[in-house]
Amino acid sequence: MRAVRLSVVTAAATAAALTAVTGCTEKSDAKGDAHGAVSVVAKDDSCEVSKKEFPAGHLELAVENKGSKVTEVYILFPDDRIVTERENIGPGTKAKITAEVKAGEYEIACKPGMKGDGIRQKVKVTGGTTAKRSPEMDAAVAAYRQYVQTQADETLPKVKVFTDAVRAGNIEAAKKAYADSRIGWERTEPVAESFGDIDPKVDVREDGLEAGQDPAKDWTGWHRLEKALWQDKKIGDREKQLADTLDKDLADWVKRVGKAEITPTSMANGAKELLDEVASGKVTGEEERYSHTDLVDFKANVEGAQKSFELLKPVASKNDPKLVAELDKQFAALNTLLDKYRADKTTYVFTPYDQVGKEQQKELSDGVNALGEPLSKLAAAVVK
Q1: Within 13 A of 198's CA, how many CA atoms are on the CB side?
Q2: Which tens digit of pLDDT belongs to each residue from 263-302?
Q3: Least buried of 148, 182, 214, 294, by fewest C-beta within 10 Å?
């Protein structure tokens, strides 16, 4: 679930930690455009873009948040699919975003407060030149596309075990199946989120609903059922209907995954987004606030990020071997840390997060930050 669904209080409380995770994010003190980059200045009421037209190929955005709110910046296709994004850019900080763009019309959007459709600027990419790709890059994209499709395909039967239990009114069976049903989604969430409309249907939390939405009518998906099972401790007709809806929405996701726009830079940026997901929801305990199965999601996010990294390693190793060595080290360290919270490494049975102490949560957060900083540089290393 993307960080846009953080409550305002949580967003403010975690802004400092998330600034550390973004890696390329730093205190804002520069003036003008970064060399060779399109400057984006995000404020609470505006989104200023230094250029409205630029050539196809690799695009770098130099983002500066001059507002008072945590913001997000997106490059969007005309139909609102996401080319790439960077979440959780704190007030007074900067971030760099690297993406591949083909000729066509796009929008750059800033989302102050990480809510709504954002403040948008139309931009145009010109020329027939596309970003150069080596055979290793093409192989990485093909392998990742297959990985994402496999994760989606394997999710549906696991979800059906969960939703069948809900439809049968079996609370304990539904609880048992809940976390397992989410693993494939969590591993590949940036691709799922790129479609724009699926994530709010299946993975939104109550405090992530948009203004004017009624939780009784408009809240759907995993977390609505999570609340019914663990907090309300009941399954009624509404919950059984929501189980049907979850099956339908995820089947739509599976059909659309094969059409996702995937590039080497989107893979690298997606890996970073997964670490941001951990920092903004799992480490804080916000994601699975009723079931406390946060560490299952945490592990799946790390696995998805590591898969992207491993596939891109042949390219990144040539361009920045020191970065690759650091990423190998930090992935290993974080996985070792996570293993402390499960007795059997072959399962996804982790310690409930409400049983993880504050010092241990801090240790997990530090591990995420240590990985997030070098991971934020992977996209740039891929296109050197």
Answers
A1: 23
A2: 999 999 999 999 988 988 899 999 999 999 999 999 999 9
A3: 214
CA distances from 193 to 2, 80, 209, 211, 295 (A): 8, 11, 16, 20, 21
Give 3-state DSSP helix, strand, coil % of the chain, rounded to 5: 55, 15, 30
Tell me the angle at which helices 358-375 and 321-339 cross, rounded to the nearest 10 degrees. 160
Hey, what are 305's tokens? 């990020």
Decide: 26 and 64 in contact? Cβ < 8 Å. Answer: no
In sequence order, the 6+-apart residues with CB closer than 8 A to the CB of 289 are 205
Say how far apart CA 63 and CA 40 lie, in whole Å.
5
**Residues 117-171 pLDDT 10s:** 899 999 999 886 666 778 999 999 999 999 999 999 999 999 999 999 999 999 9
DSSP state of 50: S
Cα 357 vs. chain centroid, distance in angstroms? 25
